[in-house]
TrEMBL record:
This is 3-deoxy-7-phosphoheptulonate synthase. Keywords: Transferase. It comes from the Bacteria. Coiled coil: none annotated. The keyword Transmembrane does not apply. The keyword Transferase applies.
Amino acid sequence: YRHGQASEVVIPTPNGDVAIGRDNPIAIVAGPCSVENEEMIVETAMRVKAAGAKFLRGGAYKPRTSPYAFQGHGESALGLLAAARDASGLGIITEVMDTADVEVISEYADVLQIGARNMQNFSLLKKVGNQPKPVLLKRGMSATIDEWLMAAEYILAAGNPNVILCERGIRTFDRAYARNVLDLSVLPVLKTLTHLPIMIDPSHGTGKSEYVPAMAKGAIAAGTDSLMIEVHPNPARALSDGPQSLTPDAFDALVKELAVFGKAV
Ligand code: PEP
Ligand code: MN
């Protein structure tokens, strides 16, 4: 790979710069799958900030399997994320699905997320490679590590050196209990192949909130640089991904448990 030099990505947030990468504390990204309304996103931001998260996540543009499922509130949700950013000081991470939305999302977000379904959307990769905000590149659900790294290479080659790789579970033969198979073996493997920082997403990786704490701990034990965890004030009523979302109380308890695992969170 031509562009594998940055061992950390430094992200300016209202609360100060947050560095994600090898020698830094483990950064936690938390928040709902979708931005639903102002009250819930601000409340979630304040709760996850108090628990120790450094970034708020929340989808404005949602890649849903069914066209009849909630698609996200779009641009108006970006305004709600801005309100949550102002209230909490957290950096904002939100997904961009379409090249046409890159510019507006990059005005609001501190990090642009490329979702698993768009990992090989090459025009989108080139476009986010050609704007200033760091990019969180999720692994495609059936992508090999080499395909994932080459997707990252598109962003790097377009001129953006700030890429974080996010493992979010892959498809295998058994979906009876967990939604995906969270591939923690990427942690030691990627460390031999790239300097890019790594994030593990045990929420999409398992699809069930009760499995999230064990896999978050496993990810830290295996050397992750950062974690993404879905948190919703009322998971039973979430418009997307409720079953895998932790309550703010459960998230707070998990962060306290994670503190005993090596690097300070
Ligand atoms: C998400 O982060 O809400 C999401 C849709 O993730 P993925 O692309 O990993 O499915
Ligand atoms: Mn989700």
